[in-house]
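Running log. JK asked me to keep both predictions on one page so they can be read side by side. First protein, sequence followed by its tokens:
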Amino acid sequence: MTGSRDVIRTVNRRDDMSAPLIRQFALAAALACTAAPALAGKAPDNLVPAGKPVDCVQLNAIRSTEVRDDRTIDFIMNGNKVYRNILPMSCPSLGFERRFLYKTSLSQLCSVDIITVLYQTGGLQRGPSCGLGKFQPMQKMAK
């Protein structure tokens, strides 16, 4: 039993000596992670507007979403149709967190609806709430 206590003490002493180094590394890693999205910029966009914007999209037709930045969300629909929603105002942390929730009593998501950014902090926490804009149909750019 004494041998195992010695190992634990040795490990603890080693941890005490390296704690400042670990803290410095953790701080540098955290700063790099927070800077990465800003440095990366937007993903290349090969989409162009295709027709007039619409006020609503059917909820059951939304297959996925792609948050492009703090103001832009692409709604990928069944059949690979894409509707781009450019929010009237920037929504803080949306581009970084890339997740949001919405509540609606209708079977549609509309330009009058509000989204709420979700923070990942051990669980999901609500962040800022922001209004949606109109849904602009998009298509791939001709080559």
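And the second, directly underneath as requested:
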Amino acid sequence: MGDTLEKSSEEPEISLDNECLMKMGDLVEVSSGEKVKFDDTGLSLVLQNGLENLRLENSLTDVILCVDSREFSCHRVVLAAASNYFRAMFCNDLREKYEEKIILKGVDAETMNILLDYTYTSKMLITKQNVQKVLEAASLFQFLRMVDACASFLTEALQPENCVGILRLADAHSLHSLKQQVQNYIIQNFTQVLNYEEFLELPADILCSTLKSDDLYVTEEAQVFETVMNWVRYKESERFPLLPYVLENVRLPLLDPWYFVETVEADQLIRQCPDVFPLLQEARMYHLSGNEVSKKANGVTPDTSPS
């Protein structure tokens, strides 16, 4: 009996050869003929498939998510591992930690099903039709990798007709990288984006940050001025007080002097807004200065004799 116990306590030898191990995973380190360090890279997939099967069989589930009229049986540990939102819900002393059924708001059942399929399988189908809802839900429930996937999809889908909507979506969900990429797209394709009414829905701060860019693609500064005035007139009663704020992003001194006098100074909204007069005066001084320089360059001396 003693001999038997002594032998069973010895560390068993591993007889798997290297070729067999490599078929199963990565052979991390061979220290001797008796010990190996082995990383089974396929185990994570086995676990994932196993958890998905348990969900489909409704086995060992311990929470029901209620969305609209549908119920989704899930495992708290899986949700908490995939989402910071559910981690906070189930790992802190919140009411939901002890409830069997949890009612979720801010998402529809179809979108929630996409999120759960992704959680258990790591796969999802993003389309132009569902990307906004999926992004909003993933942002709400903090499925961060899903948010990144949606943002990448939207970046690839940028067009003049949809870029403003994508920009507003990125801004609403604090997706700074996506927002910057969309702004760069608008800056580089400004004259095309202007053709769509959606551009006039831009918030003032985003409009100004776009207009002030040195890389803004326009053929002439008059386009920028007309953009500002169209934007103000689109919601005139609401935006008229913002006119000085947005107009300062137009390089008025770079406008053709004739256009400045005939169009800018003659505009009724401009004339009704005293707060923009300093901007106009600065442009006038620049134009006068430019005319004097031009005259001197051509050998013309201003007439300073008394009349």
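Observation for JK regarding the second prediction: The radius of gyration is 33 Å.
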